[in-house]
Amino acid sequence: MKMTDRRNFIKTTSLALAGTAIAAHAMPLDIEDYPSKHLGLQLWSVRDAMEKDAVGTIKALGQMGYREVEGFGYREGKLFGMPISDYAKLLKDNGISTPSCHQPVTLKDWDPKTKSLSDSVKKAIDDMAAIGQQYVVCPWMGEEDRPHIADLVKVFDAAGQYCRKAGMKFGYHNHNFEYEQKGPDGRLLAEWLLHETDPALVTFEMDIYWVAFAKQNPIEWFKRYPGRFELCHVKDMAKTENRETIEVGDGTIDFSRIFKKSAKAGLKYYIIELENYRTTSMDGVKKCISGFQKIK
Predict the structure, then answer these.
(1) In the chain, what are the domains?
(2) What is the pLDDT of residues 246-269, one digit of tens each?
(3) Is the Cβ–Cβ distance between 43 and 278 less than 8 Å?
């Protein structure tokens, strides 16, 4: 699967997560505290298996040791073809919860006259709050929205306010372009997002792979914006010309060095993701959890 496939899916499909309630007592980690107790998997990593057999896949992930997942594909109250409440029960029955969710929020989801979010976004947030999730994370910024970043950050703050009323927090998940492309005033899009959104309303899910792909240093961003990155995607980079994703521990990213700055970043939740496979998706994520557990 090409790396662009997931981007195209996000751009054309309403995404979200569902899951069960999770304890909210976790604090930012100290050096001695990682790997985190909050280790999850982005279900996009096993999208083929979920499509064929969601029940069997969730059961297998639980047996591998995953206790949290981050899903995708919320549509009209359903996830993976089942009502969101049934999905939450499936996770609970297998000892799994989901603290975060992906849900696109765009300029089209905002009415500047009424200063209100679209009904579809509000319903998604309400449904996720009803099953005890902690975060709603926007996974993508469309090309059409990027020139209007000054307006988009206001929409994200509004989404953050709506999430806060629902007992959750709004976040943004990056790709490489936010750390490469500049906004209207010459600042990187990532700088716009981090500097212009309200820290009390908007957090960030740093995809460490994409930051590294953009040839940026995650630690430097932790230092510049301490406490803003409550979640991260743990995704390794292959030692190849294409720099595709590879199982955690088999690539070039020094997670040990990065995670030693967890407290500075504000990291609480670590979410494994794998988009390219050497064997199968399920074999890949099984290898990933083993690789993560070896990080020191």
Answers:
(1) 3-293 (3.20.20.150)
(2) 999 999 999 999 999 999 999 999
(3) no
